[in-house]
Amino acid sequence: MKDQVFPHRHLLGIEGLTPIEINHLLDLSERYIAVNRSSKKTNESLKGRTIINLFFENSTRTRTSFELAALRLGANVINMQVETSSVAKGETLIDTAVTLNAMHPDVLAVRHSDSGAVKLLADKVNCGVVNGGDGSHEHPTQALLDALTIRRRKGRLSGLIVAICGDVLHSRVARSNFYLLLTMGARVRIIAPKTLIPSGVNRLGVEVFTDMSKGLKDADIVMMLRVQNERMKGSFIPSVREYFRFFGLDRQKLAQAKPDALIMHPGPMNRGTEIDSDVADDFERSAIREQVELGVAVRMAVLEVLAKNNMAFTSAGAGK
To answer: What is the Cα–Cα distance from 123 to 252, expressed in whole angstroms?
Structure first.
């Protein structure tokens, strides 16, 4: 039976989701936190289903998290090794989609370096697709796990001041968080050098700062972003040393935020570039390890919903 609250076949982004749909996924994720912390970490809600991880970019946290989530739901998991697959021999994305579709999977978890590539693939398959990150576009499950982390620590999302700091220009994490946090009633600030601020971002409803002291003033959440050197073509920052001096999170800059401000980072961290180790490892205020843990619970919830919705679509003979 199709999920009545989240009836979608795919999760390609956060943009367009309603507060009710977002809260539904977060509430489902809460159930799996306890499961993951128990001695018996598996159930069989997706027994006999097939999940394929198709990652065209390197990933440790996200791919492993999807794999573990699927296994704990009792699903069969296939990890496609893109570097040794037909893709490496020149096969197009559409040809890959047709090939995978013939295997009748229930859900594809896809990461791709090009924005929009995951949607293109979703349009060509008869199963559910979850976006594991596409270019600089979106990374919906990361935003959901970030929201779950904040909600568990702060008790709410609405009314909080969330400062997202660093390489906003290249960050799909930032974009998904913009959509989710603004939809849920939070105030969102971005803090970055001018070279790393997307054009027109203020039209989304975020507040823009180029000074850490001003941007972090009274913030409830400080979310640091990785400097994505692999996506930079040209000179966006003068040097790592200069970047850390002005935009790296240390104790002095953090003092501008609220005394109980939560520290977050989607990982992997570049210590000494975006964040000082003393701050990242602060047991009381850093939620970075918790983000990794909750990522498995969120992906369990998403895979379960999409797999069950896919069965309902298939049974009804519906298209996408």
So the answer is: 49
